[in-house]
Design goal:
The structure is a single chain. This protein is of the alpha+beta class. It folds into two domains: 148 residues, 2-Layer Sandwich (60s Ribosomal Protein L30, Chain: A), CATH 3.30.1330.10; 166 residues, Phosphoribosyl-aminoimidazole Synthetase, Chain A, domain 2 (Alpha-Beta Complex), CATH 3.90.650. The strands form three sheets. Strands 8-10-7-11-9-12-13 form a seven-stranded mixed beta sheet. A four-stranded mixed beta sheet has the order 1-6-4-5. It is globular, with a radius of gyration of 21 Å.
Length: 346
């Protein structure tokens, strides 16, 4: 593919008119970064090889998500990396092997093309690391003031492995709850950057693809009950969703929940609870107790799970309720997030 870098410095409405100017933008920014044999056909849809898909499993997984994070760039990540990893993770926590993504962008008139190019490059790097291909997409431009710089939608297709049945409705009393590392980093990183808080240490988003870690989990325990990435609403919301879906109780142990000291500091200053802060590289896994130590060891052997910890258990009491055993030995109820103190988080 031959590509010439466009000369304009900023997005104009003509970049969304369907003509040559738009095609030049797509070729320069997106095709040059995402180029692969499927995308390279430049059709209105991607043609996918069914034989390749079914060779990896027996059920199709399909998801979509939109990303409106503010600011576009923040410590540890950006909207492009977030869009790829977020969709990859939504597939992977369902027991699927992620294969293909789409990328649709809504761009505000006036956005620097250099910014768009930087985001696309970040998406390319994230897709390569996750082992997925971006195979189709769309570009729209809206008037200045009609959007906020850049919004991205990514849809993803994957294949669920044979014999794997991961669902929030599968939990059973006695099961063990594991998280793959410190919680709240993404939400804290966005908050600190957005509010320009002066802190002694920088907090970085935990944004990462989790499909490699999940491969490791499923290798040692195909019987995983449930997995979910703890994004908006954080850890507290995920475990409440599990408890409600399975009609069981869940008890968490505060002393076992990993939280970085810098995140604790931000939460103490602003009156926040890290269990409700968003994550973009943390999963909550529920496994049979008999497999818990094996799964924990496997997770800790993977870079994305080296700080994994057992944080709770499933109970047969107080169905649909999550409780937290505090460091003082008391117990309190952990409700789902009510309201949103930190919008535009992902």
């Amino acid at each position: 593919m031959t590509n010439t870098q466009i000369r304009q410095k900023n997005i104009t409405l003509s970049h969304g008119n369907g003509g040559k100017v738009m095609q030049d933008l797509i070729n320069d920014v997106f095709v040059s970064n995402f180029d692969n044999p499927i995308l390279g056909q430049l059709e209105d849809r991607a043609s996918l090889d069914l034989a390749n898909i079914v060779s990896s499993g027996d059920r199709l997984a399909f998801t979509t998500d939109s990303y409106v994070v503010d600011p576009l760039f923040f410590p540890g990540s950006d909207i492009g990396k977030l869009a790829v990893n977020g969709t990859v993770n939504d597939l992977a926590v369902g027991g699927a092997k992620p294969l293909y993504l789409s990328c649709s962008v809504i761009i505000e008139e006036g956005l620097p093309i250099a910014t768009l190019r930087q985001v696309a490059t970040s998406m390319k790097i994230a897709a390569n690391l996750a082992g997925v291909q971006i195979v189709t997409g769309d570009t729209k431009v809206v008037d200045r003031g009609a959007a906020d710089k850049l919004f991205i939608n990514t849809a993803g297709i994957g294949v669920i492995r044979r014999g794997v049945n991961v669902s929030a409705a599968n939990l059973q009393p006695g099961d063990t709850i594991i998280v793959n590392g410190s919680i709240g980093n993404h939400g804290a990183a966005i908050l600190v950057t957005r509010e320009e808080l002066a802190l002694s240490g920088e907090i970085e988003s935990d944004c990462q693809a989790l499909n490699g870690l999940i491969d490791t989990i499923l290798e040692v325990c195909p019987q995983v009950r449930a997995m979910r990435d703890a994004t908006r609403g954080g850890l507290a919301t995920v475990v409440n969703e599990f408890a409600n879906a399975s009609n069981v109780g869940i008890r968490l142990f505060e002393e076992s929940i990993p939280v970085d000291e810098a995140v604790k500091g931000v939460c103490e200053i602003l009156g926040l609870d890290p269990m409700y802060l968003a994550n973009e590289g943390k999963l909550v896994a529920v496994v049979p107790r008999s497999h818990s130590e094996t799964v924990l060891a496997a997770m800790r052997s993977h870079p994305a799970g080296k700080n994994s910890s057992i944080i709770g258990e499933v109970t047969d009491t107080s169905s649909g309720t999550v409780t937290l055993k505090t460091i003082f030995g008391t117990e309190r109820i952990v409700d789902m997030l009510i309201g949103d103190r930190l919008p535009r988080i992902c």
